[in-house]
Amino acid sequence: MTYTSYFRPGIDAMEGYTPGEQPKTMDIIKLNTNESPFPPAPGVKQALLDFETVRLRRYPDPVSSVLREEIAAMNGYGPENIITGNGSDDLLTILTRCFTDEHRAMACFDPSYSLYPTLANLQGAPCIRIPLTDDFDIPDNVLEQAAGANLFFIARPNAPTGNLFAKAKMERICAEFKGIVVIDEAYADFSRDNCMELVKKYSNVVITRTFSKSRSLAGLRFAFAVAHPKIIEGMMKMKDSYNVSMLTQVLALASLRDPGYFEKCVNEIKANREVLAEGLRKLSFGILPSETNFLFVQPPKNAKKYFEDLKLKNIVVRYFPMARTCNYVRITVGSAAENAALLKATEEILSC
Ligand SMILES: *Cc1c(COP(=O)(O)O)cnc(C)c1O
To answer: CA 184, 275, 25: angle at the middle one, nearest 5?
Structure first.
């Protein structure tokens, strides 16, 4: 059969986003996509057991009213400052569609979350990629480089590098960039501070947070954004009518209502992070400071080979072959047992 493509040329030309692999078997140690080693809060399981399936015949609340009330209160905002999404990727897509087109560029750093340029491609928008400095920090001339863009995606802490840009630098960008600044705080729960209060000062700032990492709910797909009510209003027009399912709303709420469990998990991951970093340091790895639930590390041997050797031992981490990142691997902080297994396997790999 002959095939004729009717796609927009940009779609045929582009690669598409490559998510980290999700192996089918459970017998591997999976440290490649920054999921939590802990189960979701016990209340999530209870809410699932208690959920009456007859409710599914109705559509969900299109704007997640209860969740927005509670998220707003927890963060010192009103529900008019909050929008919920099917994971933060959904919110990033909505933002791209709201603020970029052929004539309105996106800006983002390199290296950073590789979904950002993919979203620009999908939208047919130019993407200005601003190289981070050699130590993965924001360059001094960032505003000159980003000039002309209408949307600036900044992951803070950054991924895959794990470092936290200085808040003063963030604030300067928010104050001076002529467009929307999205601060993607997917990992902020693991870091020493965050930029949530900048939304009170700057009407061009959007903060995104996800339940995928710190709340052990990557499979659920839930995230929220915080911004000026006018920005939220515009994003509401752009989103799918029912972008957050009823089950997602029920289970996300159950997670939110157990702050004690959440804190315990985050603290344990931060403690495990330091143990893992110390263990790898002893094995002569270069370790970048991490404010996340992963480590971005330079192995003492070829990074790609180390990544492959780990895989042969059923341990999956993430390798990014691009120029700036090809000498590193990114390792999710797992449970104490998983981290110990990684260290043991690493020792074996290095000794042969
Ligand atoms: C994991 C990650 C996300 C995606 O989060 P979801 O809510 O699961 O879509 C967004 N941004 C960064 C920087 C991430 O690492």
So the answer is: 70
